[in-house]
Amino acid sequence: MGAEGGGCAEAGDATSAGGRSDVLVGEVRTGLLANSRALTEPEATAVVALRPGSQVRVSVRPVPHAVSPGLTLGVHCPVPSASGTRCDGLGTVLSRASLTSGRLVQASTHARIVLGGRGPAVEGHRPWAHHLVHPGAIEVVGRLPADDLADGFLLTATGDGPGAVLDLGAVCGRLLDQVQESPILDQKPPFRARRTRFRFVLLPCRHTAAGESFRDSGSEDSGTTFGPSPAPGHVCRVDFVVADETLRTLRIHGSGLGLVSVVGLCEDLALHDWLLTTVQHVVAGSRVRAGGGGRLSSQLKPVIDHLLHVWMPAARVGEELLPVWAGLEQRAGFSRQWESLVGWIRDQLALSLLAGLGDGAR
Amino acid sequence: MILFATSDKGGTGRSVTSCNVALRCALQHKDVCYLDFDFGSPTAGAIFHVDSVARGIAGGCGLHSYLEGSVAAPAELDLWRHIERAELQPRPAGAGRLVLLPGEEGGGEFPIDDEMIDRCQRLLRRLAEEFELVIVDLSAGRSYALQLALEVTARPALRAVTTRWLVFHRWTRQHIIAAAGLAYGEHGIVATAAAKGHNHDRLDDSVRFVRTAVPAPESPQFASLLPTQAAWLQETDAELQKLAARRGVGRSVLLGSVPLDPVLQWREQLILDSDVWTLRIANKETSAALDALADDVLNDDAWEGL
Asked: Does ipTM exceed 0.85?
């Protein structure tokens, strides 16, 4: 299993060799910025300027978005495995932080795990210089099936228990903390919101992919791919699971997909999932508390002020990955649920307005 | 808001009162988090009726391990899933989150270092971001936990977060003197804080007192007292009031008082409505006092300086 479909995650990688498979693993954590109002563009840029001398990437359409430069962290520890197989990984992970609409903060950490790149005979470690020229790649010594790694990564509880294996969530959480501690922020968020954790893996295509798969014809002939990949990128299968209150997992099987665009997709999905989760939580709370008389629950106001306009699905998603969004819209119904929540909030607003007018007439 | 619960002496009912306040705030739709910083004897698990962590959590994933740096994040227990009391299952509709960060089984007090302060600051800031109320139950006296709390709150990242201090003391002569000493005495909270860079007046304003196990002479508990005993009780109470005022822990800095109640004293447990009305083991005055305390903890007016 581990030796199939070589070099899938980054087909353009020159070091691709036969009998090797790459698995992209990553985690995105999303939260509300610890500030009383939305940051302006210069403020947002300053908050994510995490590496001196490196540029912050800023875009203003369709929503303001600032991304920190990539941060590299060296790791040398066992990689996760569902079966408990212990295989050491050596390399680096890449992280970045981003601010959306000056209001939402995300940190994402990912690594391309190279399985079976070197035979077990090569026991000596390569010098760090080798790993530093391949930022975001971890080489694993020993045999580890890709699925075993993916299951281990997606399902292991991290953060609780002495961290014996690679814990991208910890790296990511730490980065999010670092951004939130920025002296520019006043530490007075307009309401409290939970952070969510979004874990993702990108695996090589399985040719015997069973179950529902949406091999989208539209994007296959578009030919727009990132990097010099030989074949147009395509997605064979996507599994999105809401694992618990804060953990979501996404497993993509695909080939010829650009690594950067997959990470971008996951950040976008995590952002919208956070919006849904947070607004849903507030709405659920104010439904229980509904005081009647058409009064607008005080919890809804900050949501209207700060969140409703941020919803811009697939704003920064490459074309070859749009089918993933389309598939999730169809099954998980992100936008449908969002529209229903927004509709409910607007109805409450209308009711409170009517009640206010009635009071005035009396 | 981060609320530090402290007391000069042990056995004041600090933990049991704080746990009850945490529960009541969560029932009033607030998201609440409780940190057991009583490193020497973590008991919050037992008070919250979570048997699995009754004396702290096992397996090296609690607050000690986090502060020492051996885990990336301390274990967080969703209490609505773990409280073993039928009345609180399933999670009451509209209740906020209620999360316990347990201490560790077999843990002890430990000296603090700079890295520990960094970790503690990072944790508290994150929790303050996610929760409306973060209660930190400190060990009694001038402990390492208290030092850590004062050190951490002086850091720039936490200075912007509202932090408040509750000093619990029993309604006795010794306890009043001890509580006043802990707050305002030499090496007390206010003095130590000023030395660590806190703003003296702001910190002074953020300290309030809670009297525990206060005998209420007018309550039915004391209905059978002899007239001489009743008179003595009144007189002692008046004397203690005077003493408290003299020591600077009088009514102006009082946040609440919790009456003497066997359920709190002997069982150290959560007091639910069923304990008052169905089982009739707890007094309704106790429940009302805890409710008032929970209200005042979150009410900014109660913390306004005079």
From this structure: yes
